[in-house]
Write a structure and sequence with these properties.
single chain; TIM Barrel; about 290 residues; alpha/beta
Length: about 290
């Protein structure tokens, strides 16, 4: 299923506690045209006996395009020797290139997000080599691979993420631009304006207050706001992306305490409208 622009994608990792099939109707009712998914969504359903092809069909039958899979988290040399037996540590080590790429291929996801969330800053050479390998593994399946930089991770900003993508030099390699990570990392729209638009593979928009919380990880996982409710220059971000010719799908990703305390239908109801209002404002003013 091809996603026509300017339709919106619901980034569903904030609802990882809701079974995948139960996310579909709320996403569509809220006005979204596509969704992103987690590898664990597929693994959980396959354990019940549902084939990946049937999962993909259920998503399509709900009127949704299947977009990126989020994410590969164990891909750098230091990741494989990381000693962390917490539940999160075990989960991150399970998200290996081979396993996630194979899962994305089975379900026909269009792309895969790559993160460094263990707090292990790599050298440029080792990161570029490892990222090039991911791209090469994904290429035969027609899958794009995109680094999502995280200000609390080992690839903390736009400059460091782009340096890896540029050094790896793979046609299916690119970046995720998440507005929270972009602005909270201090990355600039001026730098974004110099990048090739085709190397932006997916965009996630959200908002936040002008004053950041002391704990950045806590804020990103619980304190994001709807587009237009905070301080981020989302209009400028859309202007910049349009200016470099980016045609990347735009999704809404809002991690909030509400996601766990209210029904998903209530929570996501206003998300698409808020995002479309920002897009209209940006493109009307252009």
């Amino acid at each position: 299923m091809t996603l026509p622009s300017p339709d919106l994608v619901l980034s569903t990792p904030p609802f990882g506690h809701v079974p995948l099939l139960d996310r579909l109707a709320p996403a569509r009712a809220a006005g979204f045209d596509g969704i992103s998914i987690l590898p664990g969504d597929v693994w959980a359903l396959e354990q019940t006996g549902m084939a990946a092809s049937e999962i993909a069909a259920r998503i399509a039958d709900a009127g949704l395009a299947l977009m990126e899979m989020d994410c590969i988290a164990c891909w750098l040399p230091a990741h494989h020797t990381r000693q962390d037996d917490s539940d999160l540590g075990k989960l991150l080590r399970s998200l290996t290139p081979e396993r996630v790429i194979d899962t994305a291929a089975r379900i026909s996801a269009r792309s895969i997000t790559v993160v460094e969330i263990m707090g292990l800053p790599p050298s440029l050479d080792e990161a570029a080599s490892a990222f090039a390998r991911l791209c090469d593994l994904a290429a035969p399946h027609g899958i794009n691979v995109h680094i999502e930089f995280l200000p609390f991770g080992g690839i903390p900003d736009l400059a460091s993420g782009w340096a890896i993508v540029e050094a790896a030099d793979r046609p299916n390699g690119g970046l995720t631009i998440d507005s929270w990570h972009l602005f909270r990392s201090g990355s600039s729209l001026d730098l974004l304006a110099t990048l090739p638009g085709e190397r932006i593979h997916t965009v996630q928009i959200n908002d936040a207050p002008a004053v950041a919380q002391a704990d950045m990880l806590e804020e990103t996982m619980t304190g994001r706001l709807l587009p237009g409710q905070g301080s981020f220059d989302l209009v400028g971000l859309i202007h910049t992306l349009d200016g470099i010719g980016s045609t990347a799908p735009i999704s809404v990703e809002i991690f909030s305490q509400d996601n766990h305390t209210r029904p998903m239908t209530e929570v996501v109801g206003p998300w698409a409208g808020a995002a479309r209002a920002i897009l209209q404002q940006a493109r009307t003013a252009a």
